[in-house]
Automatic annotation (TrEMBL):
Species in which this protein is naturally found: Singulisphaera sp. Ch08
Name used for this protein in its record: Membrane dipeptidase
KW Hydrolase (keyword) present: yes
Highest taxon in the source lineage: Bacteria
Its EC number(s): 3.4.13.-
Length: 455
């Protein structure tokens, strides 16, 4: 793996030969693509290259913008505020045997997840695919969703176990970050790491006392979880989710849970919480908190975005919002331009110290199609309806394949090019790319041991 100095030297040597002239057209878009494909983010992967072509056709960068943007991305520490490491293909032969053995849907869902999250540690081809995508993105660390949606500790443990296995097995190239200093060290060493987050606060749900009910927050923190969603889309004992039609706000128990998370140094995340619940959580938190993957409701109103009042309250804690790459949450053109519009709005309205990128999208292995072709047709019935936690109110937004492609996870280097084009300073861009996430994590670190909640 190249060091930062080697990557920069290779980048400068390669991009010096790239030529862009005149108005952006097919030839210039191709020249721009060559400018990307000869530096440290170069790849022969046509899936990645195709997504880059789409984004470049929208951005239309000049030679200077492209060269400096890619160089800046090489130099910067890139730390995603919420997302997913590249996903692996299933093992079609093993999965086919499970289907032929009449495994229930729940078992097949778990098997598919396990394969997607761990085959990079057990299969050489998937490992190459995984790290090629990581290298193409220029990302050093991801706040990785390592827990299913909900509050059941056993359910939350499943993904946590899978990513722990992966980082333990691949620790020389990909390790578990347990402090912000780990991320800085990974960047300096040219390595990658994952910081763990869960889509819920683990609750035994025995309801003996507040203190007893919150005891597992520390257990999960000790296992490496650094950030937790207060709610997912539905209502839970802490507050209301973003999908609920009525938002009753943060519960009394929710206040106690936030105090315990603050004490232990676990970052409070309201990305999937209702607007009132998010606002009241911000007022309750004594530490910087986040909406790790969201959009600006002041620019485009959507239930998964946050109104200005809520974002301002989050920023008042010293926290941040991570702008996501989900077209229907962005509105407008639903592409990389719309994504940059939200970044522009957030920086102008709330300040550069409070903006990050939490794509909420993933790269999928190119081998998935080949492996899925091995599967026999199933005679059993499909699960009835959507999963319980996926409470998604309907909207009339129509996503376009080109918009989705322009926001591909591996297009991270072009996000930087786009921000430079929009006139953001290099200092601002470095903050958005990762320094803000590092700062918020540092500010959440416990200074010293304190009494537990209710103690």
């Amino acid at each position: 793996m190249l060091s930062d100095r080697q990557s920069r030297r290779q980048f400068l040597h390669a991009t010096a030969a790239a030529t862009l002239a005149g108005r952006m057209g097919v030839r210039q878009a191709r020249a721009a693509e060559l400018g990307v494909e000869t530096g440290p983010f170069a790849t022969a992967n046509e899936t990645i290259r195709s997504a880059r072509r789409v984004a470049l056709s929208i951005l239309k960068p000049s030679e200077k913008e492209l060269q400096r943007g890619l160089e800046l991305h090489t130099e910067a520490l890139v730390f995603e505020s919420y997302g997913f490491a590249p996903r692996c293909a299933i093992d079609g032969d093993v999965f086919a045997k499970a289907i032929e053995a009449n495994a229930p849907d729940s078992e097949l869902i778990d098997l598919r997840e396990e394969m997607m999250m761990t085959r990079n540690a057990t299969d050489e081809g998937e490992r190459r695919e995984f790290f090629e995508a990581f290298q193409s993105s220029g990302v050093t660390c991801i706040f990785q969703n390592a827990g299913e949606e909900g509050n059941d500790p056993l359910r939350l443990l499943k993904r946590l176990a899978r990513f722990t296995f992966t980082t333990d097995t691949l620790r020389k190239e990909l390790f578990k970050a347990v402090s912000p200093d780990d991320v800085v060290a990974a960047k300096q060493a040219g390595r990658h790491c994952l910081a763990f987050t869960t889509n819920g606060v683990p609750l035994p749900q025995q309801w003996l006392s507040d203190r007893d009910e919150l005891r597992m927050i520390q257990i999960f923190r000790d296992l490496g979880v650094q950030m937790m969603h207060l709610t997912y889309n539905r209502r839970n004992p802490l507050g209301d989710g973003a999908g609920e039609p009525n938002d009753g706000g943060l519960s009394d128990f929710g206040h106690t849970a936030i105090a315990e998370m603050n004490r232990l140094g676990v970052i409070v995340d309201v990305a999937h919480s209702g607007w009132r619940t998010s606002l009241e959580a911000a007022k309750a938190s004594s530490k910087p908190m986040v909406a790790s993957h969201t959009t600006c409701g002041g620019l485009y109103k959507h239930f998964r975005g946050k109104p200005d009042e809520v974002v301002r309250a989050i920023c008042d804690t010293g926290g941040l919002i991570g702008i996501c790459c989900i077209p229907r949450f962005l509105g407008g053109s639903g592409d990389i331009a719309a994504f940059l519009d939200h970044i522009d709005y957030a920086v102008k309205t709330f300040g550069a110290d409070h903006v990050a990128i939490g794509t909420d999208v993933a790269y999928f292995s190119r081998n998935e199609g080949t492996e899925r072709a091995k599967l026999p047709k199933r005679s059993g019935s499909a699960p009835a309806g959507a999963r319980w936690e996926h409470l998604w109110p309907k909207d009339d937004f129509r996503e376009s394949p080109q918009g989705i492609k322009s926001l591909a996870w591996t297009n991270w280097p072009l996000f930087t090019v786009g921000m430079l084009q929009r006139g953001h300073s290099e200092e601002t861009i470095r903050k958005i790319l990762g320094l803000n996430v590092v700062r918020v994590w540092k500010a959440n670190q416990p200074a010293k041991a304190q009494p537990a909640a209710g103690g």
